Amino acid sequence: MDLKGKVAIVTGAAMGIGRAMAEALADNGAAVLIADRAGGDEAAAAMRDKGWQASGLSVDIASREDTNRMAATAVERFGHLDIL
Question: Is the pTM of this model over 0.90?
Answer without folding.
Answer: yes
